[in-house]
DNA sequence: CAAATAGTGTCTGTAAGACAGTATGCC
DNA sequence: GGCATACTGTCTTACAGACACTATTTG
């Protein structure tokens, strides 16, 4: 009896979402507590099954809306990878998943999910310690790496911020995702010099102490030239 | 009657392979002629259905072996993306595919596929003109882009070459995938200076004309620092 | 005033790109 | 020698990173 049957196998497919944001300088991910087996009571990435007539992108967009109330066209949604180890989900029929990365500003809070599941922002460091259901630890790790790579070459960092933000806010994004400290003066110059990355609004924002920071909004550029390099420390 | 049913849908899943190589300076992809509907007689990427007990990576490795005789651990195999548009495959049950990128040296020729399908290397430019079955045009485009990005930051270019190669061979890889011309002297210095990219074997190879080029083999480094940038022309 | 954060100026090392010039093969 | 290809040297410009310094706020 061969372990690998020659028959083509039909499977159920889910789209799982890694929705990242920055809350008070910390990288956070939206997690839900599973209400039903398998892994009932454990934390997991939000997600759901592919339905007839849908592409996986549409499934992901629908889940995003159901879990957070955000329309998918308001933020980036991109594939991270497909996870298909035969033992990744104990259910039968077999379940494979396509993971999507979404980047969101600090939201008012996922309004008590219409899906009735308890959804909440969890620091990524904490999620890694606790451990997630299924193979979601690996998915989260891959998604954070993908986000880190995108920060290098695109202006996606502004998607982590609200409509108006300071250069310090933007630097906090890079520092949280890359887990490094960046030189403030050099970062400031690089960002403000890059063509179409940020546009000054003229406003300023006071904090408790110190000189108020100038406010910016996202510029029209999508790719960031020259890239923001952190390859010296090349992990991934 | 909603277009999107609320029922979770079971689907069949394939792994499709984009196997790239360089033949006389031209980027080529391994294509098969389909013997059965849908798209019978049309060119398509090699691939096959996920079987019970297999991950998609294992499916891809098995198809690679069946189509080319190459063992998967001899070359890179990595996910490009999953394609799931509802109308991408007319068959029922519905079929979605996970595309993999493989990079191969110029092989002796895919030994008359054990799968009995006519497999052959086709220049990518030609494949784009002719058009492929299913959504394989989009998959091919995405895979070539992914390969181009990998060339920037990894030493994967050596995987396109045989065990021994000249710097000119290596440069041809970059020029074919990126569709640019690179400065020969600068490329030479950059590659030979990069730590662990290439190692001189001491041998030389004569061509018809001119000074024989020194031979190299792949070095131990996997990531390329500093990266080989072509971001000035940033397409993708 | 001190403390704190925002932002600018300047210097140094490294690397990219342009391209002149040298080396070494075949006819 | 002529020609083609491989390779080296050198110059210019651009950018990363370090860090001294100035600016503007609160207390």
UniProtKB/TrEMBL annotation, chains A, B:
UniProt keyword annotation of Cell division present: no
SUPFAM superfamilies hit by this protein: Nudix (SSF55811), Winged helix' DNA-binding domain (SSF46785)
Molecular function via GO: 8-oxo-7,8-dihydrodeoxyguanosine triphosphate pyrophosphatase activity
Family label: Belongs to the Nudix hydrolase family.
Domain named Nudix hydrolase: residues: 11-146
Superkingdom classification of source: Bacteria
Keyword Cell cycle among UniProt keywords: no
Organism this protein belongs to: Saccharopolyspora gloriosae
Coiled-coil region list: none
Gene3D superfamilies: Nucleoside Triphosphate Pyrophosphohydrolase, Winged helix-like DNA-binding domain superfamily/Winged helix DNA-binding domain
EC number: 3.6.1.55
Transmembrane portions of the chain: none
Record key words, sorted: Hydrolase
InterPro entries in alphabetical order: Nudix_hydrolase, NUDIX_hydrolase-like_dom_sf, NUDIX_hydrolase_CS, NUDIX_hydrolase_dom, WH-like_DNA-bd_sf, WH_DNA-bd_sf, WHD_NrtR
Region forming the signal peptide: none
Designated name of the protein: 8-oxo-dGTP diphosphatase
């Amino acid at each position: 009896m061969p372990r690998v049957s020659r028959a083509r196998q039909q499977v159920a497919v889910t789209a799982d979402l890694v929705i990242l944001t920055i809350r008070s300088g910390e990288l956070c991910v939206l997690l839900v507590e599973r209400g039903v087996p398998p892994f009932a009571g454990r934390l997991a990435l939000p997600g759901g099954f592919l339905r007839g007539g849908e592409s996986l992108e549409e499934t992901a967009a629908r889940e995003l809306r159901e879990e957070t109330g955000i329309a998918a066209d308001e933020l980036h949604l991109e594939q991270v990878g497909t996870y298909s180890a035969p033992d990744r989900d104990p259910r039968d029929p077999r379940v494979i998943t396509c993971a999507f990365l979404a980047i969101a500003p600090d939201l008012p809070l996922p309004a008590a999910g219409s899906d009735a599941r308890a959804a909440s922002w969890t620091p990524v460091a904490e999620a890694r310690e606790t451990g997630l259901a299924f193979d979601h630890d690996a998915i989260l790790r891959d998604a954070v790496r993908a986000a880190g790579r995108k920060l290098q070459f695109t202006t996606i960092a502004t998607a982590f911020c609200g409509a108006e933000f300071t250069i310090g806010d933007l630097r906090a994004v890079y520092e949280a995702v890359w887990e490094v400290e960046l030189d403030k003066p050099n970062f400031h110059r690089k960002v403000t010099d890059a063509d179409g990355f940020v546009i000054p609004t003229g406003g300023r924002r006071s904090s408790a102490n110190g000189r108020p920071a100038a406010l910016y909004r996202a510029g029209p550029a999508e790719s960031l030239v020259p890239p923001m390099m952190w390859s010296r420390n090349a992990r991934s």
